[in-house]
Design goal:
single chain; 172 residues; alpha/beta; eight-stranded mixed sheet; 34% strand; disordered C terminus
């Protein structure tokens, strides 16, 4: 079995079921004033990744003097890797919420869960009150030089929500 290279993927297709489960998890944490991480796992065929699962790792929310964050410890990361192996899935996208606007913080840049080049990071504003499809959601892609914001047409072509191309006014 040859390794999956996310850097070769030019389209990430996310089914409605995965989006809905993600929105639900982010909003539930947001009602408690907490961030949450959800990981999209699935399969790569050719140059297309299709998400199959919204995986929610064990995590601990924190309130700090300058904001909020979550931590995912080594045991939870081990459980994720074991689950990926047993289910023959690939981790391709990390999704998390922020209490206000969506951006990649220094913490997001330094401590990602998705670490393979070509992987995506989606940040959802306002504790996902409007969901992933709402305005202000930010998309980043990991390259050899770090995380880079994906905007406009590039973002809409790269990340396909609901299995179809977004219409005018799409959030990302």
């Amino acid at each position: 079995m040859s390794p999956v290279l996310l850097s070769d993927v030019d389209r990430f297709i996310i089914p409605t079921t995965v989006i809905d489960r993600t929105d639900s998890a982010l909003r539930e944490a947001g009602r408690r004033g907490a961030e949450k991480f959800v990981l999209w796992t699935g399969h790569v065929v050719g140059r297309v990744f299709t998400a199959a699962t919204a995986y929610v790792p064990d995590q601990v929310p924190h309130r700090l003097p300058d904001g909020v964050c979550v931590t995912v410890d080594g045991d939870a990361l081990h459980a994720l890797n074991k689950w990926l192996y047993e289910n023959q899935q690939t981790l391709a996208v990390q999704v998390h919420s922020h209490p206000t606007r969506a951006y990649h913080s220094d913490t997001d840049d330094t401590y990602p869960i998705v670490t393979q080049r070509g992987g995506l990071s989606l940040v959802v504003p306002d504790f996902a009150a409007a969901g992933i499809r709402g305005s202000g959601t930010a998309l980043y892609r990991l390259s050899g030089s770090g995380w880079h914001r994906q905007r406009g047409w590039t973002a809409r072509r790269l990340l396909v929500l609901d299995g179809e191309a977004p219409r005018n006014g799409a959030a990302i």
